[in-house]
Amino acid sequence: MIEETMVTCRKKSRSILLVNASVLLFGAAGLFVKWILLPAIAITFGRVFLSAVTLFIFCSAQKQPLRIKERGAIAALFMAGAVLALHWSMFFLSIELSTVAIGTITFSAFPLFITFLEPVFFKERLLIRNIAAALFIMAGVIITIPQFSFENQAVLGIAAGMSSSLAYAALTLINRRLAKSQPSALIAFYEQAFAAVTLLPCLFYIKTQPSPQDIALLALLGVVMTALAHTLFISTLKHLTARTVGVISSLEAVYGIALALVLLGEIPSLREIAGGAVIIGAVIINQLAASD
């Protein structure tokens, strides 16, 4: 009995370490916008294409069947891929227009949209706790806005970031429905692949050619920061509660801002720090309260 408990504790500790590593990799992904000299859409395409290739190799090595039998699931996966393409394009555009801090902080606001969309999609009760958290998240976003003017790059970055946040909320709800009938690795592969298909026509309007350095950075972004990070993240769900994973995931903005400070020299403003603290605090408290 004692030995089984120790094994369980070791697995849990290892999973906590892995989920932190995956969230750290997710947070680092935003920095690549500042390093890769390509438009946000091109970076997104490179990310999802290389990630899809990596996940295809992984699924094949694991002898995971790639066939989707349900027609409804294929349509849902294609929709999820399109939403994923929008989410990452807007996320990268947000950072391109402003800073890593603004991009990651506004992304962290996605529970605001889930609060009101989830009861509609799944016919669940709208909890007062979630409404309160959503109001605090909204307040955090407002605090982050320096001066409301669409001529201000930071405001445009916030607008793009909130669009990314809304898209991610929609993606989360679609994945919740898909996860009931499809393996996680298979969902990830098809979403990345369909996202690449969705973005493919956009490449004909992009005149910038990637340099060898851009291609190398895209490979790192697609393989390590996306495919590997998602695989690590999914693997931890077997030994950790959704509450624990949710709280640790809220640290993505913290990791992203810290890495941007060290590697890019981006110092977040007091508004960004205050707004980010309110948003992340509201998300963490709401996740903790969900276990009661």
Describe what you observe in this structure.
With 292 residues, the chain is an all-alpha fold. It has one domain. The protein has 13 helices and no strands. The longest helix is centred in the N-terminal third of the chain and has 28 residues, at 2-29. It is globular and about 50 Å long. The relative contact order is 0.21. The mean pLDDT is 83.
Question: Shape from CA axes?
Answer: globular
Structural class of the helices, strands and pairings? mainly alpha
Q: How many β-strand runs?
A: 0
What is the CA-atom radius of gyration, in angstroms? Answer: 19 Å
Q: Uncertain segments of ≥5 residues (pLDDT<50)? A: none
If helices are DSSP runs of H or I spanning 4 or more residues, what is the number of helices? 13
Number of domains: 1
Relevant terms:
292 residues, mainly alpha, globular
Q: What does this entry show, briefly?
A:
The protein has 292 residues and is an all-alpha fold. The protein has helices spanning 2-29, 32-35, 40-61, 71-97, 100-107, 110-122, 128-144, 153-178, 184-199, 212-236, 242-249, 252-263, 270-289.
List the helices and strands and how they pair.
Layout (H helix, E strand, L loop, with lengths): L1 H28 L2 H4 L4 H22 L9 H27 L2 H8 L2 H13 L5 H17 L8 H26 L5 H16 L12 H25 L5 H8 L2 H12 L6 H20 L3
Helix pairs in contact: 1-10, 1-11, 1-12, 3-4, 3-9, 3-10, 4-5, 4-8, 4-9, 5-8, 5-12, 5-13, 6-7, 6-8, 7-13, 11-13
